Automatic annotation (TrEMBL), chains A, B:
It comes from Brevibacillus fulvus. Substrate binds at residues 55, 274, 330. This is Thiamine-monophosphate kinase. Mg(2+) 3 binds at residues 31, 77, 221. It catalyses: thiamine phosphate + ATP = thiamine diphosphate + ADP. The lineage of its organism: Bacteria, Bacillati, Bacillota, Bacilli, Bacillales. Keywords: ATP-binding, Kinase, Magnesium, Metal-binding, Nucleotide-binding, Thiamine biosynthesis, Transferase. ATP binds at residues 107, 124-125, 151, 223. It holds the Pfam family AIRS_C. Residues 29-143 form the PurM-like N-terminal domain. Mg(2+) 4 binds at residues 31, 77. The gene is thiL.
Amino acid sequence: MARDEFALIREWTGRSYGLEGNGVSVGLGDDAAVFSVAAGMEVVACCDAMIETVHFLRETMSPCDIGYKAMISNISDIAAMGGIPRYALVTIGVSPGWQADECKRIYEGIDQAAKLYNVRMIGGDTVATPDALHLSITLLGEVESGRALRRSSARAGDLLFLTGPVGSSAAGLDLLLSRRERAVEPRPDWQTLVAQHQRPTAQVEAGRLLLKSGLGRALNDISDGLASEAWEIAEASGCKIVIEAERVPMLEEMRSYAASVGKNPLDWAFYGGEDYQLIGSVPATEAETLAAAFAEHGLPFYLLGTVEAGQPGVWLSEQGSERPLPKAGYNHFKDEAGEDQNG
Amino acid sequence: MARDEFALIREWTGRSYGLEGNGVSVGLGDDAAVFSVAAGMEVVACCDAMIETVHFLRETMSPCDIGYKAMISNISDIAAMGGIPRYALVTIGVSPGWQADECKRIYEGIDQAAKLYNVRMIGGDTVATPDALHLSITLLGEVESGRALRRSSARAGDLLFLTGPVGSSAAGLDLLLSRRERAVEPRPDWQTLVAQHQRPTAQVEAGRLLLKSGLGRALNDISDGLASEAWEIAEASGCKIVIEAERVPMLEEMRSYAASVGKNPLDWAFYGGEDYQLIGSVPATEAETLAAAFAEHGLPFYLLGTVEAGQPGVWLSEQGSERPLPKAGYNHFKDEAGEDQNG
């Protein structure tokens, strides 16, 4: 990619995001961006990278989807702290196989997600890479001082909840890959699963409700699969978590697609990941109030298990018996997945 | 690289940086980090990526140097705003040719620079990449509200200054490459140039002095070469900049090495980059006071030209005549360099 094509991307992003004001003192176009933080608020910061062939394939994600999903995965991390997403710094590494027009569409996807969640792009870096495209985003947000929702806050006596169905993204990916590999004829309603994989939703409103109501205790987002995220809460909180298999929310489209390919849908729910729902805990005595608050805001809410005293770990309760739920997820394309130091 | 090797890196970085307190409410190990900002301060944010084969070669930089320099290039961007570097989020993309032990040494380099500049690692991501190693760092700092030093603040009547010699890093790289390609026998004193390339210094103290004294006007850091950075100030400020060739500070070692390889040292000074000195402007009436303040702090200070009214651009004054100084720098390894959206 030639230097003037980088300039084009830069110009395009500058046109879309470079404005100052509304908390931003210095936007794009200087050595660093500068923004103010409202009194009583702290900064929430995370970063998450997506690498071609490791996290996505050109065949399964359009350039616009790639940008969109990279933003969502970061916004979701802010949501999982109960925070408000505010600013993004986007680093794109462009390899020779990617055209300027495709890069522009990646930024369009970033822009679409940014607009939807009121995020402004305030910085970044555009570099050449020899091989795979990579997209690394830092997202900065705000949260009320001392009130961020932690993984480590679950307590025995809490109930475990989810903000929506899980496993859809993995099923959608399977459908995308099987079209190519197994020539499965997709049913029109399965398209929902593909959309969940390519254009997921971040649960910012749910995260804010959990924080503002004072009822949410532990919180985590489902980026690596329900099992792995429940394990993170169990280990960080020093508790035993029991998930009831029948209560795991899954889309009917996901179940029917799983049946058609002879797959246990719980495998996708537990080990698929990239659903970006929130999993958390609420004191049992407050669960009904919280469920009502979610209902009032038109947000889904599912109780799916309990937090108990005991050796930290996750158990699956199914047909009256409990068995340990293994921690490990799987990676879609490779044996080794990314490890998020704060994700 | 196997999953447990990623875990090892994660564990290692967690051990070194994961602690909370002192402004950090949530450190490594949750979905996002959370920190507070002191009253009267704003957040300064930048990010800068370094890609193997584009920004460095294994032959010219040890793993420890790579980590160290990636931190410095980001800390330098904070310095160029007059800010205080505080927190880092580090994303490393590890390709199959890199061993866990080398990755650990990259983090050791990051750690060394972080300790030197009081920066804490609060987050990041560790991912696999198919080919080249990449290291992308977001640096967050603080600056007094409304007082960040901008590229756009130069005014006609200002004098142009530099905080130290330029061109040393490019000369050091040339020396490293020529050892391999031209079998040049290096003189011991040229080792200084190699050190400037591998272990540069960020001018945080100078940046703070410029801000706190109230005397610094425009400011920029030399990441892409003196010509390119002067052009950025000229264009952002809408001024003509005139640089006097004889005043450009260059190390004696750099001049002698340039002479030995038949190179004009000004080429490295103007187009080499990665010196991480600060270039800025000061009202002419305040230049003497500012120079005295630098001297008092034991910091170098060089006046090298003037800011004038006129068509935005950079001119070189040499032996009594002025000629336009081209903007373009060069890239060390490839034809297309990275473009920093805020760097």
